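Why does residue order matter? Because the sequence determines the fold. Keep that principle in mind as you read this record.
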Amino acid sequence: MDYQAVLHQIADDVAPLVGRGTPAAYIPALADVDPSRFGMAVADLDGKVYGVGDWQRPFSAQSITKVFTLALALARGGDSLWEHVGREPSGNPFNSLVQLEYENGIPRNPFINAGALVVTDRLQTLTGDASSELLEFLREETGNPELAFDAVVAESESAHGDRNAALAHFMASYGNIANDVPTLLDHYFWQCAIEMSCADLALAARFLARHGLRADGSRLLSRSEAKQINAVMLTCGTYDAAGDFAYRVGLPGKSGVGGGIVAVVPGHCTLCVWSPGLDARGNSVAGVAALDRFTTLTGLSVF
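Structure:
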């Protein structure tokens, strides 16, 4: 597969869409990101990376980090995690409180904010320092020791994090949060504020294309656990647009309001695309189109 030629074709095809949509305004530190940016990278199973546009420019990974926190929590704690968070699409906005009351404080899936808070809470219990554990894992998988938290973004999220605090306190009232809420929120905000490039994220997600094997060849997850994460990404990874994303793209994917989307082709490669302009449901306008073009041009999908 000539990934480099495919990426150049995609960049040309989606150029009219770059700049459409709006950067995430509810996080002030993200609101001023240039919406005309576009980058895309593909990492093959051996770790060779191909890229186009701003593929080496760091951006705020945001909710994409939920994939890696979920993997670490599963690797450290096993299937007991699923007693605290479901695996079903929510059909509601990512920060909704509505379903928690109906479902006794058990979030629908690990990628909505409530579910991600539960996963981070579990990782905090297992490691004692969830955000640092995540950062170290990402540095190892990418081979990039310079990966770091963006303190400005973390502080911005904390200052505007009342909804996440409400979610955490509500779940704590049902006994579904083990750590004190301020500590949990601190780790969650720092987790979301990690800066990574398309190349970094494509490399970091490679264990999902390699059926659970890390960059060094050691096993992080069983094949079954890697399949579980890919399945939840396919059905729940793009907020309440997951059905449309699965229909258009046909790959496990996870988006973030920083404008990035990671996608996995099990047994072949991983991808990351970044363009900060978001649609009404929080997904990158040009990013979704780029991944759609990738599956069309290459014929690679899970179906």
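Residues 113-127 form the longest helix (15 residues).
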